[in-house]
Design brief:
The chain is of the alpha/beta class. It has a single domain, classed as 3-Layer(aba) Sandwich (Rossmann fold), CATH 3.40.50.880. Helices cover about 35% and strands about 25% of the residues. It contains eight helices and nine strands. It has helices at about 15-25, 65-80, 90-95, 120-125, 180-190, 190-195, 205-210, 210-230; strands spanning about 5-10, 30-35, 50, 85, 100-115, 130-145, 150-155, 160-165, 170. The chain has a nine-stranded mixed β-sheet, with helices on both faces. α2 packs across α3. The longest helix is centred in the last third of the chain and has 20 residues, at about 210-230. The chain is globular, with a radius of gyration of 16 Å. The termini are close together.
């Protein structure tokens, strides 16, 4: 089987639980460290699927790797190679498919309730997921839903939490989190947390409360979404 390509845009925003999930299914992966200057491949057909992780930058920034990634996403969708995006990754997919990324009304950082939207495509992707679950968030921008895609997850502070288009999935929330990732993000993001004046931003102490229990539930949600996504992997 061809590997799943995972694009890392920042050293602290690796695949987390997603890598654990792939290993459990004996699905090979290739980590492409864009943050270390790894070139963006031009042909998606070398992979069974493409996964884009998060990052502190904006998809609207003038960075040399953004245009090649947008082109790669468009080629992947055209060639029916499934794409999956987490936070920045979901924004990249949305922009590649004609959506726009703009500032969210409020910044979301920490645990926050996410709801499954009531439509057939959401039910297909989220059939084993509770109608409401505690997701993890760390973003100040949000995507519009690309043409032809369907909104499948929402939250009170960010209506567009996830969308699906055929075998492709873009998410604003983070379902890939691990304890190490949360602790690292809190350490490097102290100033951002302190400067944020938003009802949807938690302190590191609040994020740490019942963390292990929340991560077990979040990993379960992630596993259901990932299981649905790997059904579309290209041989």
């Amino acid at each position: 089987m061809k590997p799943v390509a995972i694009f890392r845009h920042a050293p602290t925003e690796g695949p987390g639980y997603f890598a654990t999930f792939l290993h459990s299914k004996n699905i090979p992966l290739e980590l492409i460290k864009v943050d270390e200057g790894a070139p963006v491949p031009s042909d998606p057909d070398a992979y069974s699927g493409l996964v884009f992780m998060g990052g502190p930058m904006s998809v609207n920034d003038d960075l040399p790797w953004i245009a090649p990634i947008l082109a790669l996403i468009r080629a992947a969708v055209q060639q029916e190679v499934p794409v999956l995006g987490h936070c920045l990754g979901g924004q990249l997919i949305a922009k590649a498919l004609g959506g726009v990324v703009t500032r969210n009304p409020v910044k979301e950082i920490g645990w926050g309730e996410v709801s499954v939207v009531d439509n057939p495509i959401a039910h297909d992707w989220c059939n084993a997921i509770p109608n409401k679950f505690s997701g993890f968030h760390w973003h100040g921008e949000t995507f519009s839903i690309p043409q032809g895609a369907t909104r499948i997850l929402e939250s009170a502070y960010c209506p567009n939490q996830a969308y699906a288009l055929g075998k492709h999935l873009g998410m604003q929330c983070h379902v890939e989190m691990t304890r190490e990732m949360i602790e690292t993000w809190c350490a490097v993001g102290q100033e951002e947390i302190a400067a944020a004046h938003s009802p949807a931003v938690q302190t590191p102490q609040q994020m740490a409360q019942d963390m292990d229990q929340k991560l077990v539930a979040l990993n379960s949600v992630a596993a259901q979404l990932y299981m649905r996504w790997i059904q579309g992997l290209k041989a």
